[in-house]
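Example 3.2
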Amino acid sequence: MLDQGEIDALRAAPVPAQKLFIGGKWVAGSQPPIDVISPIDGKVLTTIAQAGAEDVARACAAARTAFEGGAWSRMAPAGRKKVLHRLADLTEREALALTVLGIRDNGTEIGMALKAEAGSAAGTFRWYAEAIDKVYGEIAPTGGDVLGLVHREPVGVAGVIVPWNFPLMIGAWKLAPALAAGNSVVLKPAESASLSLLRLAELAAEAGLPEGVLNVVTGPGASVGEALALDMNVDVLAFTGSGGVGRRLLEYSARSNLKRVYLELGGKSPNIVFADAPDLEEAAKVSAMGIFRNSGQVCVAGSRLLVDRSIHDDFVDRLTSYAEALRVGDPLEVTTDVGAVHSLRQLEGDLQFVEIAESEGATRVTGGQRIRQETGGYYMAPTIMTGVAPEHRLAREEVFGPVLAVTPFDDEDEAVRLANATEFGLAGAVWTGSLSRAHRMVARVKTGVMHVNTYGGPDITVPLGGVKQSGNGHDKSLHALDKFTDLKTAWIKL
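Structure, written as tokens:
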């Protein structure tokens, strides 16, 4: 059980000005430091270093030197396994401190963050530590006079760019397979949520990761992210964030060394509720958390509710009851259900979506306003909008906030058409008591993840990736290793 006194003590600890981590050393950035604003109260928490292009180049060169040196890249998988297990142990040891530190700069409610951030990261490092010495090459089915071998080798230097909503969790999804495979990494966190990943770099060094294998450069994506994406030492780039940035990263790849670019670009995920759902009350409760947890700042959030017209009004009433009962507040209070919106800019964008939806004819059922403004922090009431048509912006664009768009449907075919009427394809769900319908919907809805009679919960054993403009490649599972390894064929005449 969470101890509020321990949390408050960690909250009160000062956060020193942060530096870059390059070649195993903490160094100042060549550009002016950046203020870190806490969404809890709108106050400056600390500063992070701002890297310049020359700092990024040094980090990438350090990663290349470490990779070519072989202390990590040529270490036996069993050796890398031990180091990653130690990193998992250290992450678990500091789970609460890491979580509180991360909440102070990103605003996720602690009840969710402790499991989703430090807890998830530790589990991810442990999972890939155990997996990497069990991944085999292949022997090709050749004739008896030839031996065809397929080796799996580390790519080299991986550039990793992660967002602000779950920096530790998403960072680990990319760092763990990249490091387990033997690569060196240059990591760029979001400039507004770098603190927990900078601390993770310290823990990685303590765990025994050789110098230069993990480097962390902080600063704006427009400059630091661009420099990383253009660097000729980077062999592969893994990114989670917006579609606009993803497109620029592809351009930077073309302008540099044609590095592979893997993108997870968010979604507008349909949550489809049929009248024959086995438990409508449970569906309403889970659906509420599927959009409102972390103030809707979740890539796979069920932001479009498609509900059978015959139960529409009843289901919206149930959902509204759960939404209005959620306690929105200080994310470091254990009684809080929903924490802060990450930044003032994000909050203003969320509120604007509500205004636009109303101007296009949607009806606000609940929420839609800024709350707790007296705290100086960034908080928004969970919001439900009904009468949202497929052509409305709220049905087409990712809000990344606590705003749910509700649209009725009359039959299964219409539900599928509405679900697929989006440029995104990351996640979705269907609630039904029919096994046949469940399988049909899984097959027909174009997403990378499809939930049945639940929303959320897939663990590290299964892949997460999008289709259409939600991106390419996969985080999680053994499939994540594909991003960070090359296949090499050995054709041997006997």
